[in-house]
Design goal:
Blueprint: H1 2-7, H2 18-51, H3 68-94, E1 109-114, E2 117-122, E3 127-130, E4 132-136, E5 141-147, E6 152-155, E7 163-165, E8 171-175, E9 181-187, E10 199-205, H4 207-219, H5 225-229, H6 288-297, E11 305-306, E12 310-311, E13 326-327, E14 332-333, H7 336-344, H8 346-349, H9 362-373
Parallel strand pairs: 1-5, 4-10
Antiparallel strand pairs: 1-2, 2-3, 5-8, 6-7, 6-9, 9-10, 11-12, 13-14
Helix pairs in contact: 2-3, 6-9, 7-9
Length: 376
């Protein structure tokens, strides 16, 4: 029922994948059967209240023995309903579109939850990214789900089922999304202070667009950062170096506010002010080479991986961070000013996150912003 998906996007009623359609179908059937039961019971109670109401008679009412056929019928019907609902549930849990997947040593995607972000690896493609799951439309993928620290729960309503992620255990599900577009997911198990800001963006693309994304991810930006640092903005290479008030084509407009969610047609976020964050915006004068030096000097490379620069995996991979739509697992719209604010004081934006406040000066933050903005 597509109208339900449009009316209630990112919910149990999404039907954009076979797995989600299975869950939605089961939900609607159970709701329909339970509604009929409710109507029958309500009508019978109403009839009984009217039929057997007190009319001023004295003494106890007559005790009439009910026909046993009624008792047998009222026992058989609920039993049959329970058997039907049980069969439908088991069929949905273990049927071909249940999302169950056999454990495999080579899953298509490995998603690891951590406080409070998602690592997403494509082992067969040699790609590592964070907080954005890219899928080609109409193709099933076997996904391995892990946790690095505490219990998390993977849930993108448009993909169907929820799945807990318990440290030390591997869980396997099959996902498939058939509609090109974007939808939002989240951790559905309380996992600490910033549980509410552990968002996951699903981007479903045409096969051609997905192949282009894969090629861009494999290209690698980190090792080319120094070479590109000396190239002027108007160089023949055409690399966009944002100036004040500019962002690359297709990126969200500059707005140094915190997004209360993902900016999509179905999601209308409120944009509260960033309370304790310095409101000085990036001035566009940062130097890429100096930014790379700061990245190494401030031990960023000890946690973050960038192609050709560092191989750490404690924090999100930043090799293509400028190509993502959000920062801090959905906490900020990804643009130059928000990146600058995040670097100045991440604890003010996402208290308790593992990234400390390095007390960067405005100049250092501008340089580091310029470097990270070059990683497309």
């Amino acid at each position: 029922m597509p109208f339900l998906s449009n009316l209630l996007p990112n919910s149990t009623f999404s039907v954009s994948s076979p797995q989600a359609s299975e869950i939605t179908g089961l939900t609607l059937w159970v709701f329909f059967i339970c509604t009929l039961i409710f109507i029958f019971v309500a009508v019978w109670i109403g009839y009984s209240v009217v039929k057997f109401r007190h009319r001023g008679e004295e003494g106890e009412p007559d005790q009439v023995q009910i026909n046993k056929n009624y008792e047998v019928t009222w026992t058989i019907i609920p039993t049959l309903i329970c058997i039907l609902l049980g069969w439908m549930t088991v069929k949905s849990m273990f049927g071909p579109t249940s999302g169950e997947a056999d454990p495999t040593p080579e899953p298509d995607i490995v998603i690891t939850g951590a406080q409070w972000w998602w690592e997403i690896r494509y082992p067969k493609l040699g790609i590592v990214t964070a907080n954005e799951l890219h899928l080609p439309a109409g193709r099933p993928f076997v996904v391995q789900l892990d946790s690095n620290d505490v219990i998390h729960t993977f849930w993108i309503p448009d993909l169907g089922r929820k799945q807990q992620m318990i440290p030390g255990h591997h869980y396997f599900i099959t996902v498939q999304h058939d509609v090109v577009g974007e939808s939002i997911g989240a951790c559905a198990q309380y996992c600490g202070d910033q549980h509410a800001w552990m968002r996951l963006l699903l981007k479903t693309e045409s096969p051609g667009d997905f192949d282009a994304w894969v090629a861009a991810q494999k290209a690698g930006n980190g090792s080319n950062a120094i070479a590109s640092a000396s190239v002027p903005p108007a160089s023949a290479q055409g690399r966009f170096i944002p100036g004040p008030g500019q962002v690359p084509s297709g990126r969200p407009p500059i707005a140094p506010e915190v997004a209360a969610g993902h900016p999509s047609p179905n999601y209308k976020p409120l944009l509260p002010a960033v309370a304790a964050v310095p409101l000085t915006a990036a001035d566009g004068t940062g130097d890429v080479a100096r930014g790379l030096a700061i990245f190494k000097q401030e031990t960023c490379a000890s946690c973050h991986s960038i192609d050709g620069v560092s191989t750490a995996r404690y924090a999100p991979d930043l090799s293509h961070v400028a190509g993502r739509e959000t920062l801090a697992a959905g906490r900020l719209v990804n643009n130059r000013d928000n990146l600058f604010l995040w670097l100045r004081d991440p604890q003010a934006i996402k208290p308790g996150c593992k990234m400390p406040n390095f007390q960067l000066t405005e100049s250092q933050a501008n340089d580091l912003t310029a470097y990270l903005e070059s990683l497309k």
